[in-house]
What does this fold into?
Amino acid sequence: MLTTILIAVLSFIVLASLGYVLTSDGNGSQVAVKRAQAIASADPSRAKRQKSQNRTPEERRKQIMLQLKESERQERKARLTLTARMTHAGITPNLTRFWIISGILGVVFAIGVFLLKPNALVALGAGFAAGYGLPRWVLGFMAGGRQKKFTRDFPDALDILTRGIKSGLPIHDSIKVIAREGAAPLGPEFQRLVDNIGGGRTIIEALDIMYDRIPTAELKFFTIVLAIQQKTGGNLAEALNNLSTVLRARKMMREKVKALSSEAIASASIIGSLPPGVAIMIFLSRPDYIRVMFTDPRGQMMLAAGLVWMLLGILSMRKMINFKM
It folds into this structure.
């Protein structure tokens, strides 16, 4: 009896991890970043500028929308590689080590399930789901936490840059201050930025490399602001100060959305945990009442169908309450 319950719980965990990987959209499509990139990366040649000026506002708007749709289509086609996932998580990419760990994890889960229920097909399925889904879930969890910390500290870094530029310091010296005093992951990433600039790369090229490690909208906005300032000139301190204000407003909006969606998250958590919770309480209070669900083949089929539907419902609720900005 207890063995069957353990098999059901273990199957639900591995199915949930596999479903997370299959439905996770990685970094997602960020319309604001794509819009800024499409505008900032326009060809500056005189002929194209003249052609763009001759267009009506409606034609220019349609052209920008077409560029955005094309970039989003390419974004959907592109898939994150394992190397990129490990880089985002702050781990030195090592595919051999990753596959070894995944294989060991899959074998351990397969053996554990086989010992609980001697069924080779079930054991292989559980081992595959665990070996394929759990390591990727861990990488996604680590990358998400790392990006949240970077986004939280990034406006303060912009304030340091603004004050340094206003006091007469070159931007490279202000970046060194952030690299020296910033907390991880902000400080180490800015130290890599300093090293890349010292190695002969331009600041835009170094920021593009940094974006490959920390793919956040805030960092891309910063890169675009610097690229536009280098091409057109202007007051960089004022531009960075405005960007810092915008990023703080985005943070406040995210917190507001989080507060407004907390009720939906709590409801989804209760709904998702209610069926297994009730089943466990019934088993503890009246085991004979629920034992037929695990001993009768029809009950086992009903439990399997219930697990699948529960997984689909949880993933659907996750998509509905996961607001991205």
Summary: Residues 21-33, 42-49 have pLDDT under 50 and may be disordered. The radius of gyration is 25 Å. The CA atoms of residues 110 and 123 lie 5 Å apart. The longest helix spans residues 120-166.
